[in-house]
Amino acid sequence: MAAADKHTRDLEIKNKERVRILRILLVVTLVVAMVFVGGLTYRFMSAKERNDFESQYKDSVVKVAKEFHLTLDMKVLSASVFSNLYTSRFGDLVNTSTLASVWPNVTMPDFANQASGLLAMSKGRAISFNPIINNETRMSWETYAKEQATQIYNSSSQLVKRSCATCWIVADGIFTKGIVNDSFVNIYDPGYTSGSKKYPDTLVPIWQIAPQKTNEGGVMFNLHNEPKRQRALDDMMHYKVPTLTDILQLVQDEKLCPSSILFYPVFASFHNEATTNVVTGSISIVFSWDALLNKLLPDYIEGMICVLKSSSGQTFTYRIGGYEVEVLGEGDLHDPSYNNLEHRVDANITGTNSFVGIGLSEVDNFITFQLLIYPSKELESAYKSSCPVIYTVIVIVIFLFTIALFLLYDYLVQFRQRFTARASRESNQIVESLYPSQFRDRIFHFHTQRKNSIPPMEERIQLVADNTNGNNDDDKNKRKRRNSGMSTFKSRFFNATKKYGIDSPDFDVGANMKPGVPAEAPIADFFPNVSVAFADLAGFTAWATTQAPNDVFLFLEALYWEFDQVAEFFGVFKVCAVGDCYLAATGLPEPMADHAKVITEFSIECLKKMEVVRERIPNNLQLRIGIHSGPVTAGILRGRKSRFELYGDTINTASRMESTGAPTRIQVSKNTANELMICGVEDWLLPREGLVSAKGKGNVQTYWIVPEEPINVTIGTRDSF
């Protein structure tokens, strides 16, 4: 049994370890799931915000590209309209005296009013007509300009009347910029441009310009003498298409304001084939690049970065948002982290696309532009929120709450298991005190077999139903038959349930005695060598009638607790305690060679404990003990309140030894005396004088137990009762 108990304990320890590991794995799994799901939640929400941001950015890019091209094309269209206006008005006119074409000596009446609408439509800063002159036509054109100046401009204008010694007027002729005495001033243009390979002796002065008031100082200025303008004009004259200058910083702009000039060719005639493709002048529209980027987006969209790059390598960065445009500076200043979202927009103007990228032998390649669009942190932050963090926190809180619930549930389950285990241990202790271990195991086995032998509910119902089926009755007795049949069915069902012991776990003695039914084996064994002791309180009945019930039970509990301690110490099996009688035995359930000596030592110690208890709970009661040795039959008497019982003549004889004994003394039978002699303690025996008349035994010789030396044992005693 010890090996089996050890095996059971080992299994319990292993099961507890498995449960502990499983619990840890479950918690770790929940934590990992929390981290994984939380990470997915954060990533999904962040990706959603990122997708919203990129979607809005791409929509905005399409709008910017579309509006940018539209604005640029509008400038070309405005210049084309004005160019056609000049050609249609002056293309077929000839000089009446020379019968030659009037070009380049032409002046558009009411220029400012006609230019104002086109200037607004093109979002330009200035629009001008610039005749193309060479050294052969220069003198005549300068004379023509001097004559027209008094008619075009007010007599008080600085273009007609010199307001200072260095001021330039129309009558002074075509000028350019030069250095005189370390000062950058207006000088008479020499009529030769060294930078132009194709048109070195060509002059392109500004003649009519709007708005006039802020741009009068530019009239008569030779645009072809400035390198950036010269390159665009050469391309325009050579390819007869509109062109753009490289990026300029105009002298009138104090702050950084990247600008360019659109040159559109003015043709000599629409009808004369000889002069149809002859470029006699240009329409120029001066504009700043920020004007092209202004008001391209709704006011709620902010923070887009536009990088303007020219084919010559010039680069400027703008920030656009809503109706505002800000020049961030020269160079590419966008955030490199948004390179993957770069969008390129070609800024070529209508009419030049077919020439872009073709190497020219006499002039430079066309100046082309690209607009590189990027988002910014500011734009992205408008689509970022705390939602990913909030949703992630909610997911984590849910998991933590789940883990907490699991731990609480696990704690409650463990608490319940501990409570159940404690109750089970207490119940086992009670059972162990009532039944020896091998008998306890057998009765448990018996109940398990009975439980497994119970037929299923369907079989019992079918069995009862089969027994209740009868012949069909006529219609008149159907209702009566149904009522009585249901009653019979219920009765037989409950009887069948009772038959199989379902109503109670107790043993069905009646079923075990029925003829033809195999009897279930009793739980009992025969023990040939057993010593039985009866201990009785002399005078207990009379004393108990004079005491309060609580005092009686207090004394008995105190006394029997002491006896139980002594029995556990000596390995004596306590059979039962009935009233004032305490019954104990040795030699069962485990055989014991010195069973008589052990039960005697137990009895001697009980007499001592009686005195101890009497000192704490004073009374006049005295203990009387009788012992007999012999064979007994022991087993569990099944039925209601099953109990462990001893049967046989040995029990009766031990009872006679107690009843014929004397208070404070231990009386043993001849059989017990013989067993004590075998154990070598015959000196404990004192033959009783005279024979004792025992009921059913006649006159028998008995002995008193009087050990010459005290038995040295140490058994604990309760401090209080």
Automatic annotation (TrEMBL):
<dbReference type="GO" id="GO:0004383">
    <property type="term" value="F:guanylate cyclase activity"/>
</dbReference>
<feature type="domain" description="CHASE">
    <location>
        <begin position="205"/>
        <end position="296"/>
    </location>
</feature>
<dbReference type="Pfam" id="PF00211">
    <property type="entry name" value="Guanylate_cyc"/>
</dbReference>
<dbReference type="InterPro" id="IPR006189">
    <property type="entry name" value="CHASE_dom"/>
</dbReference>
<dbReference type="GO" id="GO:0000166">
    <property type="term" value="F:nucleotide binding"/>
</dbReference>
<dbReference type="GO" id="GO:0005886">
    <property type="term" value="C:plasma membrane"/>
</dbReference>
<keyword id="KW-0472">Membrane</keyword>
<feature type="transmembrane region" description="Helical">
    <location>
        <begin position="21"/>
        <end position="45"/>
    </location>
</feature>
<keyword id="KW-1133">Transmembrane helix</keyword>
<dbReference type="GO" id="GO:0035556">
    <property type="term" value="P:intracellular signal transduction"/>
</dbReference>
<keyword id="KW-0547">Nucleotide-binding</keyword>
<dbReference type="GO" id="GO:0001653">
    <property type="term" value="F:peptide receptor activity"/>
</dbReference>
<protein>
    <recommendedName>
        <fullName>Guanylate cyclase domain-containing protein</fullName>
    </recommendedName>
</protein>
<dbReference type="InterPro" id="IPR001054">
    <property type="entry name" value="A/G_cyclase"/>
</dbReference>
<dbReference type="InterPro" id="IPR029787">
    <property type="entry name" value="Nucleotide_cyclase"/>
</dbReference>
<keyword id="KW-0456">Lyase</keyword>
<dbReference type="InterPro" id="IPR050401">
    <property type="entry name" value="Cyclic_nucleotide_synthase"/>
</dbReference>
<dbReference type="InterPro" id="IPR042240">
    <property type="entry name" value="CHASE_sf"/>
</dbReference>
<feature type="domain" description="Guanylate cyclase">
    <location>
        <begin position="531"/>
        <end position="658"/>
    </location>
</feature>
<dbReference type="GO" id="GO:0004016">
    <property type="term" value="F:adenylate cyclase activity"/>
</dbReference>
<keyword id="KW-0812">Transmembrane</keyword>
<dbReference type="Pfam" id="PF03924">
    <property type="entry name" value="CHASE"/>
</dbReference>
<feature type="transmembrane region" description="Helical">
    <location>
        <begin position="389"/>
        <end position="412"/>
    </location>
</feature>
<dbReference type="GO" id="GO:0007168">
    <property type="term" value="P:receptor guanylyl cyclase signaling pathway"/>
</dbReference>
